[in-house]
Task: structure prediction
Amino acid sequence: VLRGEQVDILTSSKELAERDAIDAQGLLHLFAIQVTNNCDMHCDASEQERTRRYAESQVIYGDSGSFQKDLLLTRYFDRDIRKKSGTRLLLDEVDSMLIDNADRTLYISHDLDDFVHLRTLFLTIWHCVNSKDCAVNSKKNREKIEKLVLQKMREKILKTPKTLKKFIRNRLALWIQSAYSARELEVGKSYTFVNKPQYEGRPLIVDLATGVEQANSQWSNGLHQFLQLKHRGKLSKESLRAIYISNLIFFKEYGKNICGMSGTIGLEAEMALLNTTYEVDFFNLPRFKRELE
Result:
């Protein structure tokens, strides 16, 4: 920072980012360096707050989803939150970020007003997959439900706008499979509910590798909506995902200016992969104290 760098520090969860930013303030304020995070409750509720923090701070803590979301909103939705990423990226747990989760992708979804008409359709599908006749998730039962729904549309028992009919026919099989999947997923394992006002009633995806809730993520193909029906929550609209960025592409935004640490990278194959993909090299950091013999 004293050389003029803008430093982004990326951790595995929002809670860690918020905690670490607070812990760092005591040291960095000695050098008149402003440090903050981009992912606490106030940031989640206000784009203006995130914009202010990016403009006023030289060190930003956050999780990958928070950085990526603001980047996409600025580039593709004309929101002047943050025009470019920091000049230096510091990573906690390099192996997790750059290898295990390199293909993880953040999507910015579009809510279309016409999609409100899908709610009755989702209710019909959910009723069918929970009926005695179609309780088993089989190809025969999925095809049976699909035929029933299409018949109700032809007979105008299920009323849908003409603009959505082709879309519904193309997606119907996926939605039916998602309804069965929602019935089988277990709360507390694949998803959870958090006792926070901004997430009230929302099923949150749980990262099975780390156990961290993915507040910026949502399952597609109606799975999130069927989970809401499963728990008798408010049914949100299905959305389209057209704008997205993977972790790998996001990390490459920083060029060769990536630094980080890990206690578990050691295999030559893993190091060769990181060197080829991100153009980084390695060194072994000695222990602060010698091991007792």
User: Anything to note?
Assistant: The longest helix spans residues 162-184. The chain is about 45% helix and 15% strand. The first strand starts at residue 7 and ends at 11. Residues 17 and 23 are 10 Å apart (CA to CA).
